[in-house]
Design goal:
Layout lengths: L1 E5 L2 E6 L7 E2 L11 E6 L10 E8 L4 E6 L3 E3 L7 E9 L4 E5 L3 E3 L4 E10 L4 E10 L12 E12 L2 E12 L17 E8 L5 H11 L5 E8 L5 E9 L2 H20 L10
Parallel strand pairs: 1-5, 4-6, 5-8, 6-9, 7-10, 8-11, 9-12, 10-12, 11-13
Antiparallel strand pairs: 1-2, 3-4, 12-15, 13-14, 15-17, 16-17
Length: 271
């Protein structure tokens, strides 16, 4: 998918899909010109050896909100893992909000998600994601085999490409007691918010951490500085509730939308 800005409105300049993934028709949630696309998996779930490829290019000055129709469900994957590979490119002054529904890994599921993201020093990226352990016959919270989420974010300048952040999450319950001290700390759900924007600073990190205190979750925020004034932050939250993490991340993204663009918090009305 390629998104460009035309006359104050973001539109798709190219769009292609085949296989298990589809995109619904575009929506405009307000009068800002930001376009919203919804990714749909008609098959309902990811299975063993499935490979999903997503490529998104947001052109100069364009704004895209990309979400999913429902949770990403990963069922048993005997023989081989399911995988999603995403490539994202943001042009000068471009903006991407990536807010999929939660990822649910069920018993004996193995899933890998690899994202390669290239940003311009003036572009803005917001990514929010929740990981939820799926139902298991024995009632255990961590019946899956593996979840690996890897985000590589690079800044593109005239001097070349520079690594800004390498965010790697790896959960392997059969090999490590993930419930204990120093890992999940007794919680079962993980929420992540990644923000890359030249307006990121310590004040914003402190503000987001303050917002997170109002929720039933354990939260931390880290900052990173990049080339050409590019800055990023990662917020991590642990909880025992998908709904609580969704509300927490929604409050944080809502603060950014209001503070930076004068937009209301997201209300995608999927349920």
């Amino acid at each position: 998918m390629g998104i460009v800005e035309r006359g104050g409105k973001s539109v798709a300049s190219r769009q292609f899909h085949e296989g298990a993934l589809r995109v619904l028709r575009p929506h405009y949630l307000d009068d800002s010109g930001q376009v919203c696309y919804v990714v749909v998996n008609p098959g309902g779930a990811y299975l063993g050896a499935d490979l999903f490829l997503v490529e998104v290019d947001v052109g100069d000055g364009a704004e895209l909100l990309l979400t999913t129709q429902s949770a990403t469900k990963v069922y048993r994957t005997p023989g081989s893992f399911a995988e999603q590979r995403m490539t994202v490119r943001l042009g000068e002054g471009a903006r991407l909000e990536l807010v999929p529904d939660q990822l649910i890994a069920y018993r004996e599921a193995s899933y890998r998600q690899v994202s390669h993201i290239s940003v311009h020093p003036s572009s803005s990226l917001v990514m929010a994601e929740v990981i939820t352990p799926g139902w298991s016959p024995d009632g255990g919270a961590f019946g899956f085999e593996e979840i690996r989420l890897r985000n590589e974010i690079r800044v593109e300048t005239q001097q070349g490409s520079r690594l800004l952040a390498l965010d790697n999450v790896l959960i392997r319950p059969p090999l490590v007691d993930v419930t204990g001290l120093g890992f999940m700390e007794g919680y079962s759900h993980l929420g992540s918010l990644v923000v890359v924007d030249p307006r990121v600073n310590q004040e914003l990190a402190d503000l987001l951490h303050s917002v997170a205190r109002d929720f039933d979750a354990c939260t931390g925020v880290s900052l990173t500085m990049g080339t050409a004034g590019t800055r990023g932050l990662v917020l991590r939250s642990l909880s025992n509730s998908t709904g609580e993490l969704n509300r927490l991340l929604g409050a944080c993204t809502g603060l950014l939308r209001e503070r930076w663009y004068g937009q209301a918090p997201l209300n995608l009305r999927k349920h």
